[in-house]
Amino acid sequence: MIFMTNQDFPLIFELSQESRTGFSLPELDVPEVDVDEMIGEAYVRKSEPNLPEVSELQIIRHYTALSKRNHGVDSGFYPLGSCTMKYNPKMNEDVARLTGFSHIHPYQPVETVQGALHLMYDLQESLAAITGMDTVTLQPAAGAHGEWTGLMMIRAYHEANGDYNRTKVIVPDSAHGTNPASATVAGFEAVTVKSDERGLVDLEDLKQVVDEKTAALMLTNPNTLGLFEEDIEEMASIVHGAGGKLYYDGANLNAILGYARPGDMGFDVVHLNLHKTFTGPHGGGGPGSGPVGVTAEFAEYLPKPILTVENGLYVFDYDRPQSIGRVKPFYGNFGINVRAYTYIRTMGPEGLKKVSEYAVLNANYMMRRLQEEFDLPFDRHCKHEFILSGKRQKKLGVRTLDMAKRLLDFGYHPPTIYFPINVEEALMVEPTETESKETLDDFIDNMIQIANEARNEPEKVQDAPHTTIVNRMDETLAARKPVLRYQKED
Amino acid sequence: MEFRYLPMTDTDKKEMLKGIGVQDSDELFSDIPEGVRLKGDLEIKPPKNEYQLMKELTELAGKNINLKSHTSFLGAGVYDHYIPSIVDHVISRSEFYTAYTPYQPEISQGELQAIFEFQTMICELTGMDVANSSMYDGGTALAEAVNLSAGQTKKKKVLVSKAIHPESMAVIHSYVKGPGVEVIEIDHKDGKTDVKQLEEELDENTASVVVQYPNFFGQIEPLDEIRSIVDTQKKTMMITSSNPLSLGYLTPPGEFGADIVVGDAQVFGIPAQYGGPHCGYFATTKKLMRKVPGRLVGQTVDEEGRRGFVLTLQAREQHIRRDKATSNICSNQALNALASSVAMSSLGKQGLKKMAWMNIQKTSYLKKQLQKRGIEIVYDGPFFNEIVINLNQNIQEMNKELLTKGIIGGYDLGEVDENLNGCMLVAVTEIRTKEEMDTFVKEVGDLHD
């Protein structure tokens, strides 16, 4: 079978044969008219798009083969730090595919979609309770989209107070790249605050950078090093004291469900990644969903419309003069929200708290077992993920990239590497709570083996991977001579 | 309560706590200050077992009237098309849906190649050189295109046709606030962009002209005329938003010299699902390749010279450039792009053309029947699969009546333009039968009289 070989694998266009079909359209049951005349000659397409002409079985074989050339959570362990690659429950998929959820139109009268609106409303309430915020919007499509939405609300808040000089958004040096990018897109200037030797935000530096121009501080807590910002109360008072606001990036919420809530820590605006903490599948890169929660003083700036209840009927309220407007057509990624809702209802308060307990337990267990063989830049309890440094192996000529590639030979997706950028040769490991101790132990044993190989037979690691269908790719060539599409040879 | 997603046993827990060197797991949370700790439980509903929860949610879904239980003439940006069975079978392969962004090409060739094929199909349909891996949706893709044009031309004004989707217009207004771009809305006249007004507003400060083709009213905008107006300013770009299905039959915007073409691939294999997730696409010229937002997949070779694919030109992106990135977008709609690729592969060159053609044919039929019944067709220009009819009465009330006949009526245009009070935007796709259309004409006609 072709997918088992490591030979060049055809593109679907290369399977194409003139006049072969994979479709079954309804018959034209109305009298045919000359549509070309109606459209006008200039607007009738002359050359057909070069789409593949393939049979149904060919399509199925092609994509089945592609799927076998891809690693997902269902294929094996996927400890990709900051991405929360936990199990994606199958029940969620079934619920999202119920006809009454999947085949409803966003412009149907609200009376005809009360079931969907009930689910959305209940999800908003649940997320508000989980984060300790007053109101939630489901409109943003993903985490970065939520960040920008939240920052636009903070901007609107300051402007409504006549505060036009708050042009700066502070982000820690360990922050995810979307934080400074979202700040720029929202029209702010991103300013960096340093981390200290504990791996936490340097309070002295924070006091230096916070001033009357500060619009907000963006923070994940636990931070991207997997560490809880234990000075959060003082940080909040520094930022609030200067008239700034606190933005919570919910990428790492999986660590603290039922233990602590952003709202109680002093955060004003929060986004969540439902495709991380709440099991919306990652889909190979998306779709995600990035709801935003706010305290009451920000409620009037939420994107419109707002879902409310009037006389027992769920309705949308468009009369929101202070709203930042729409951030997305329609009402958010409903299909992903259905999955997240199903998950929350499956777990309840007790289950969600266990999720965080076990996510943290798993991460600490791995960290402690690996600390002898790898450098541990921050030696303290971690939360749901931890950072190792490959500094020691680098001296032997083995880079973190090499070790990541070697892990592929053992059937794993490697951890996140070279992030956060403030740690040399970083490896960021996030096991999640859905992995068993046996899986963790196997991974640890393999990591220790790789550390041994780095000492004794480094070329084995440097030349990895050895068992994958392709070897390391020439990324320089890809960027220097970009080929971004297939073109049929004449 | 048992939790089937959590494999931790008491024995595991004991051994792990010992390995860490702590007494209990609470110690691991000791860094959370007392003052911010949650006392008590999260105030959400208690857990429910699989059977009972499935029963409850099935009942909840059953409360919604849907596009399968009723005959729909509702479009306005989201369309009810035939979805081949194979689409859901392919996207249900969990190697695809449980993976993330393909950072490790050696074990992600499947996703990378699928995206490369999607990019190719979008280029083919739009007539453009380059397409990205997908965007959140058509509306946000259009707003990103607007901001790109302002950044690239270093001009701060855009002319946006009022005949684009009203929600895309709303999203543009939100997106331009950050970079501070001024939006001038251009009226529509006879259902199309008022080219005269466009000509008057266009000047050397204009970054781009934005139109939808076919537009919100289903009308086919005169792109050649618009392009020649845009050409009077050297740097100004032409941006179009296009239903990609229509491009199976209509001349693609690329052939009219569009600089950026965006839209939503929902029409290919993606259910309406109450407005999302759908699948935005973003296509442009070679010249703008390094300014594109989002992920791009490129072809390369491995150490042994075998063809393979990688994420490329990443120097544009947030994880490398941080505050200097071309956009903050991080995720894309890979799984939905895959669904669209499967649907497009299934249709192929001939099928896609035929499907687009059938949309025009069936819409032509409905238009004729409505006319015969004495109902006014508001715009008489060339159309794709939507028409505007004037019923001179409360559309919401009429739609309530239609529901009782098993019909989901069209979009109430009075919602967005008071000049169109009493008008309905009606969509017809290839799956509407003659019989269903005849019934629609009868019911609407009866209510109209």
UniProtKB/TrEMBL annotation, chain A:
The keyword Oxidoreductase applies. Its cofactor is pyridoxal 5'-phosphate. GO terms for biological process: glycine decarboxylation via glycine cleavage system. It catalyses: N(6)-[(R)-lipoyl]-L-lysyl-[glycine-cleavage complex H protein] + glycine + H(+) = N(6)-[(R)-S(8)-aminomethyldihydrolipoyl]-L-lysyl-[glycine-cleavage complex H protein] + CO2. Coiled coil: none annotated. Residues 53-307 form the Glycine cleavage system P-protein N-terminal domain. One of its GO terms (cellular component) is glycine cleavage complex. Keywords: Oxidoreductase, Pyridoxal phosphate. GO terms for molecular function: glycine binding; glycine dehydrogenase (decarboxylating) activity; pyridoxal phosphate binding. Residues 356-462 form the Glycine dehydrogenase C-terminal domain. The keyword Oxidoreductase applies. Pfam families: GcvP2_C, GDC-P. The modification N6-(pyridoxal phosphate)lysine is found at K276. It comes from the Bacteria. Its EC number is 1.4.4.2. The glycine cleavage system catalyzes the degradation of glycine. The P protein binds the alpha-amino group of glycine through its pyridoxal phosphate cofactor; CO(2) is released and the remaining methylamine moiety is then transferred to the lipoamide cofactor of the H protein. PANTHER family: GLYCINE DEHYDROGENASE (DECARBOXYLATING), MITOCHONDRIAL (PTHR11773:SF1), GLYCINE DEHYDROGENASE, DECARBOXYLATING (PTHR11773). The glycine cleavage system is composed of four proteins: P, T, L and H. In this organism, the P 'protein' is a heterodimer of two subunits. Belongs to the GcvP family. C-terminal subunit subfamily. This is Probable glycine dehydrogenase (decarboxylating) subunit 2.
